[in-house]
Amino acid sequence: MSAREELVLQMRAWRKRRRIAFVVQVVTIIAALALAAPAAALLLGQFTGMRDDYVPQRHVPGTDGSISITSADSYVLIRHEAELPPCTITDAEGYELLQEPWRYASDPPTVGTSFYAEPGRYQVACEGGQDGVVALNRDQYINSLRGPWDPRKPALPLFGAALFIYFAGRWSAGRIAPESLRPLYPA
Asked: Is-above-0.70 flag for pTM?
């Protein structure tokens, strides 16, 4: 086999490796975009112009102090404008719900009381009235206070996976057909 024929075979092998590397890179870019698009949508959906306490479902005491709880869960009773006065929460049968102090370390710290409630109507009575007092689902409220970059939310892991796949694809394509394997024409 002549040197020219050998060079032609090397060039064909090189082109084949380059095509495979190109396909690997295109597939990984598409996979990375497929992960980054929903991550961006999830992240943008978490940004809102509303105050954090408006994001979770609110239960505001009416003029008679009653609130309606629709699902069994833990709730927090807070007051944003001022300190929460001592409050009592009673169910429809007149039994008082057990409350425990609750604090979220934000800036400024959010202070209130936490209680568990089943679905139904409850009476909230606070010293000095219940103006500004609101009951919020505790888990939803904590999630809204953490902000959109919380690693427990799905947007950040999806972005991380997209970046990993993108750079892994670039690295793999470089390993499949490195420039050091490109055949050189004899001078």
From this structure: no
As a three-state string, the secondary structure of the chain is CCHHHHHHHHHHHHHHHHHHHHHHHHHHHHHHHHHHHHHHHHHHHHCCCCCHHHCCCEECCCCCCEEEECCCEEEEEEECCCCCCCEEEECCCCCECCCEEEEECCCCCEEEEEEEECCEEEEEEECCCCCCEEEEEHHHHHHHHHCCCCCCCCHHHHHHHHHHHHHHHHHHHHHHCCHHHCCCCCC
Is pLDDT above 80 for 33? Answer: yes
pLDDT tens digit sequence for 158-174:
999 999 999 999 999 99
The torsion angle over the Cα atoms of residues 161, 167, 169 and 170, rounded to 10 degrees, is 170
Q: Return d(Cα 83, Cα 76) in angstroms, integer.
A: 14
Q: What is the C-alpha to C-alpha distance for residues 41 and 47, in angstroms, rounded to an integer?
A: 10
For 10, the token pair is 């090397």
Residue 181 identity (one-letter amino acid)? L
